[in-house]
Specification:
By secondary structure, the chain is of the alpha/beta class. It folds into two domains: 33-59 and 170-362, 3-Layer(aba) Sandwich (Rossmann fold); 65-165, Rossmann fold (3-Layer(aba) Sandwich). The chain is 42% helix and 13% strand. The protein has 13 helices and ten strands. It has helices at residues 13-32, 65-78, 95-106, 121-129, 143-154, 161-168, 177-184, 204-215, 232-238, 276-290, 296-314, 339-344, 350-362, and strands spanning 38-39, 49-55, 88-91, 111-116, 133-137, 157-158, 195-199, 221-227, 270-274, 319-325. A six-stranded mixed sheet has the order 1-2-10-7-8-9, with helices on both faces. A four-stranded parallel sheet has the order 5-4-3-6, with helices on both faces. The longest helix is centred in the first third of the chain and has 20 residues, at 13-32. The structure holds pyridoxal-5'-phosphate. It is an enzyme of class 4 (lyase).
Amino acid sequence: MSPSFASLKLPNIEDKDWEKRALSILQGDGLRSADTHLIKPVFPGLKGIDIYLKDESTHPTGSLKHRLARSLFLYGICNGKIKKGTTLVEASSGSTAVSEAYFAHLLHLPFIAVMPLSTSRKKIDAIENFGGTCHFVSNPSEVYEAASQVAREVGGHYLDQFTYAERATDWRGNNNIAESIFNQMRQEAQPTPEWVVMSAGTGGTSATLGRYIRYRNFDTRLCVVDVEHSAFYNAYLTGNMQATCVTPSRIEGVGRPRVEPSFIPSVIDHMIKISDAASIAAMHVLSERLCRRVGGSTGTNFFGVCWLAATMLKKGQRGSLVSLICDSGDRYSSTYYNPVWLEENNIDIAPYKKMLDYFLDTGEFICNMKT
Ligand SMILES: *Cc1c(COP(=O)(O)O)cnc(C)c1O
């Protein structure tokens, strides 16, 4: 039977036009962005060890999640899930929602962020400034179910960073963060890093770094640093991907109550678990030395870098170490930079701070504390 013209439904041209415009807007955001700096602070005590920090705080939306949000939007549009008028929903501890609210605003799409009540005020303000709506849950482990329920109720699309972060990014290159780092290192005295150090939220950035290191056959190893309250470290040690952590993470952006699907343990060479006091102390020390404030997860990264630098110095090794400044400390003036908050949370940073400052000035790591 030949189809009658009446039943022949052609694809809607208007939808196609919207997709084209949306892709060109996202690509335009990429074109207007410069690559982020790979800074090289000097630490007088660390002879032969070069430390580099990729400064992701300079993206228009203030964190490394700018990259992820752009990738998730492209992924959603190219998979036909995001169309004209689609309401977008996300589960987030804040940074991702800020970046996604920005892109939703660019594309004139409604955006709803589902976040823990503990999310910093500055992130909430940023989301609302971009026209997004915030929906709160009391415990971080509730964000997934709440976000998927909100998406069902409004007939929207759940972006689901924790599932899709590892696959929305082109791991072979396309100027992903790994390719950018290795390109920026090319003219350095020690161009191939001994280690790249990264904390895990979705696990997406560490997955991209680990895959890219293998793909390009570099001798670099990947060290993932986990925080006090998080399921990742336990899962890495035991192989139990069902591991959970009941206590919510205090370091925003990293540490998760469950092992996220985007966390890929097989590409990680080593993991270190770092106490929150050590992370926040390292954040303060680095901020003082850079003369500007970095965020808590950057402190976690920096403590891991110091730990590896100490190990290398002890063995008489030279080499370079690379990590990230994930976001700026301006978002945390009422928490990590507030002595009252530290005291309320029973976090004593003084001993770690003293130890790190001494280490950076002398190269001697005197550590009798749990890391
Ligand atoms: C998301 C995030 C991280 C971790 O990056 P992932 O790629 O999600 O593992 C670190 N720091 C901050 C501030 C973040 O928002």
